[in-house]
């Protein structure tokens, strides 16, 4: 690492370059800037400037993160909550983001899409073979890890498969 940055302008430019690559939470940005300088006051000044200029806002970050994870990665609310908490976003901002996305997204439809995609790859094109309980359990586990509620997963799996569903405790798979 080059010598620590000493000016507000240099550190602010580092922050803008980071934000140009991807959105960051306030906590993430604080850690990133801390790697470029040992001056905590300078970090706080740059963070305040970023917030004031509208470049850094956890509420907006949480909404964008949530909608992106739902749309592209087909993740559920538990996984999104866990990842946003890891990024230092407050529970209030997480709750608002998930509430906003709940009106726009049908979780059951997202689960059905994921199940159908998995079943298609397991069965192969038009083979018509039944899916055994191990494969159903694997799909169930993957949906739990993706952050969806267990009761909703079970309901959609029952609807789309004829196999018996596992009685897996969601807390067993949360590792």
Concise overview:
The chain is mainly alpha-helical and 175 residues long. The protein contains 9 helices and no strands. 65% of the residues lie in helices and 0% in strands.
How would you sum up this structure, described in words?
- There is one protein chain.
- This protein has three domains: 8-52; 58-102; 107-173, no CATH class.
- It contains nine helices and no strands.
- The chain has helices at 8-21, 26-34, 40-52, 58-72, 77-86, 91-102, 107-123, 133-145, 150-160.
- The protein is elongated, with a radius of gyration of 21 Å.
- Give the proportion of residues in helices: 55-70%
Structural class: mainly alpha
Secondary-structure element order, as H and E? HHHHHHHHH
* Model regions low in confidence, pLDDT < 50 over at least 5 residues: none
The number of E-state strands comes to 0
Q: What fraction of residues sit in β-strands? A: under 5%
- Span between N and C termini? 34 Å
Q: How many structural units, i.e. domains?
A: 3
Instruction: Tell me the overall shape.
Output: elongated
Largest sheet: none
Q: What is the topological layout?
A:
Blueprint: H1 8-21, H2 26-34, H3 40-52, H4 58-72, H5 77-86, H6 91-102, H7 107-123, H8 133-145, H9 150-160
Helix pairs in contact: 1-3, 2-3, 4-6, 5-6, 7-9, 8-9
Task: Spell out the key features of this protein.
mainly alpha; 175 residues; 3 domains
């Amino acid at each position: 690492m080059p010598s620590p940055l000493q000016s507000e302008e240099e550190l602010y430019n580092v922050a803008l370059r980071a934000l140009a690559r991807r959105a960051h939470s306030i906590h993430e940005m604080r850690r990133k800037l801390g790697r470029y300088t040992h001056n905590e006051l300078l970090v706080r000044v740059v963070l305040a400037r970023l917030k004031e200029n509208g470049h850094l806002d956890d509420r907006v970050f949480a909404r964008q993160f949530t909608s992106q994870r739902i749309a592209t990665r087909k993740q559920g609310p538990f996984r999104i909550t866990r990842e946003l908490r890891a990024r230092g976003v407050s529970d209030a901002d997480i709750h608002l983001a998930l509430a906003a996305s709940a009106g726009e997204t049908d979780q059951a439809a997202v689960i059905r899409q994921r199940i159908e995609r998995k079943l298609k790859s397991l069965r192969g094109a038009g083979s018509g073979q039944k899916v055994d309980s191990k494969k159903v359990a694997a799909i169930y586990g993957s949906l739990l890890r993706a952050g969806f509620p267990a009761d909703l997963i079970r309901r959609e799996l029952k609807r789309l498969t004829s196999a018996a569903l596992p009685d897996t405790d969601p807390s067993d798979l949360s590792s």
